[in-house]
Design brief:
single chain; alpha/beta; OB fold (Dihydrolipoamide Acetyltransferase, E2P); Rossmann fold; 3 domains; 21 strands; about 25% helix; about 25% strand
């Protein structure tokens, strides 16, 4: 088998090289900036990821988080290179033309949202522009056909209180739950109310904070006679590592609040680094008493050892209250969602996303459908209703278990789920699929997966992505007409942006490719 030629920037697990240098096309090497310099700038664009693209008078580019197009500002340089610099915004000198009043009291220092000060109509306009730009630069879509291929973005009817899942980390200084500061993995901002989740979820957050402290879960080691490091830096280090040599062992890692729109109830997941059922029992009892019918269940998930915390897998799950899962309804099907399984965080917008995926797939009754990175089987099961046979592949065994339960729950017998890495060689039977759907994580597809897709007999590929930059890179590889590559190329026929994450710079994108 021939090897897929690696395109520039195409590395397994790597982001495409839409580097700062590639954006800073007008940068001049004779500009001299050093860290600490205070400069006045004008923001002209928004880079993918949310940083403002600002320019000095001669075009030298400076990237500034939280700067918005049209805004004039002063900023302090944090790093400088010959081609571009980075800076921190100090003051807005002249606001942009689409100013909006943030609804959240934590906007600014909180890393959860970056666009609340921008009117929603302008937010979706920027995201649509970003997708078009990425498709032109990375997928090679000609400017003359860009308007026809990239469709107008599907906006969100409810740009606040839309998230069905929020994760709150523990601040090692205040022992309060919150969200991380922008760009930080160890500094946590205490959060009282989050405008992206529903009011009842905020009530739960406040109650959880109170009862955790009341019953000693947050200072369990103090009760055991262990002393906290007096130095704040050492204390934070102790929490980030899980244990300081002479300090306490952290028990709680973070708390996840999940919400079912269909059932109108919540699941609380306490993620700890050891079995904490004994500590959490009185906490759960108070939550049950306080929220009664709104509480579907509580779970204690024990994270495996290792660092960083964000990448730890879950070693064990203990159900403390209720069934230990949520049930959500999408597209007329019911989905059982385990505490740590992936599911779209914007339920109402997911209905629109899945509706477009079904339309784009254009499945025929005799088709065989392959769904790579299928998660809990949401898209696979919807497609299974329309085809002869559907096969979902997902690396997470927990998600595959959910997917199989969901197939039984919805009485679908023409679907199969396999726990496997999509990057592994596909079984020969799967190469004969008629329609392929892929929904990878942010790093996108590896060259092996691109090669496998090109090797199939599929007539259409529907590529769902939460990262249009890696998606555009992969489209370029799938559509590459080079005769030396394995398989026949595809052509890009449509791209549909969907705003799944209002108030943030992130955007979902669905690309439709047809075999040439």
């Amino acid at each position: 088998m021939q090897t897929l030629r690696r395109l520039p920037g195409f590395l397994p697990g790597a982001r495409p090289r839409i580097s700062c240098r590639s954006i800073a096309t007008k940068a001049r090497s004779d500009i001299t900036l050093t860290a600490g310099d205070v400069i006045n700038l004008e923001c002209t664009d928004l880079a993918f990821g949310g940083d403002g693209v600002c320019k000095l008078e001669d075009g030298f580019v400076v990237f500034v988080p939280r700067a918005l197009p049209g805004e004039k500002l002063s900023a302090k340089v944090t790093s400088a290179k010959s081609g571009f610099a980075r800076a921190r915004k100090l003051e807005t000198l002249t606001p942009h033309d689409h100013v909006d009043t943030p609804q959240c009291q934590h906007f600014g220092p909180c890393g959860g949202c970056a666009l609340q000060s921008l009117q929603y109509s302008a937010q979706v306009g920027l995201k649509e522009h970003q997708v078009r730009s990425l498709m032109r630069r990375l997928a090679g879509v000609a400017s003359t056909t860009l308007e026809d291929i990239v469709r107008p973005i599907i906006p969100c009817e409810h740009p606040y209180e839309y998230r069905n899942r929020m994760e709150f980390s523990l601040d090692p200084d205040s022992l309060e739950l919150g969200l991380h500061y922008p760009g930080s993995q160890d500094r946590v901002l205490s959060i009282k109310n989050c405008s992206l989740q529903e009011p009842l979820a905020n009530e739960m957050l406040a109650q959880i904070q109170n009862v955790l402290m009341k019953h000693g879960v947050l200072d369990d080691d103090l009760k055991r006679g262990n002393a906290w490091p007096a130095n704040q830096t050492q204390r934070r280090s102790s929490y980030s590592k899980g244990r300081d040599r002479d300090g306490p062992q952290r028990v709680l890692e973070h708390v996840v609040i999940r919400h079912s729109v269909a059932e109108r109830n919540y699941l609380v997941n306490f993620v700890t680094n050891r079995d904490a059922r004994d500590l959490l029992a009185p906490v759960v009892e108070e939550l049950r008493e306080k929220f009664k019918d709104s509480l579907a269940g509580c779970v204690n998930s024990v994270a495996a050892k290792g660092r960083p915390v964000a990448e730890r897998r879950i070693a064990k799950e203990y159900t403390l209250e209720g069934n230990g899962y949520l049930v959500e309804t999408l597209g007329g099907l019911e989905y059982e969602i385990s505490p740590n399984a992936f599911f779209q965080v914007n339920t109402r917008q997911a209905e629109k996303l899945f509706r477009y995926v079904l339309e784009a797939a254009a499945v025929q009754p005799d088709d065989v459908v392959l769904d790579l990175y299928c998660g809990s089987g949401a898209i696979t099961l919807l497609l299974a209703q329309q085809c002869r046979r559907a096969h979902g592949v997902e690396v997470s065994a927990i998600a595959v278990d959910d997917a199989r339960k969901n197939a039984r729950r919805n009485h679908l017998t023409n679907v199969k789920f396999t726990a496997a890495d999509a990057a592994a060689p596909l079984h020969p039977k799967l190469l004969a699929s008629d329609i392929i759907v892929v929904d990878p994580a942010r790093p996108g597809l590896t060259p092996n997966v691109v090669e496998s897709i090109r090797s199939t007999t599929a007539r259409r590929v529907v590529y769902v992505s939460c990262n249009p930059s890696t998606q555009a890179r992969d489209i370029g590889a799938l559509c590459d007409p080079n005769d030396e590559l394995v398989g026949r190329p595809f052509k890009l026929v449509a791209v549909q942006p969907v705003d799944m994450y209002p108030q943030t710079p992130h955007v979902e994108s669905v690309a439709v490719l047809e075999r040439i």
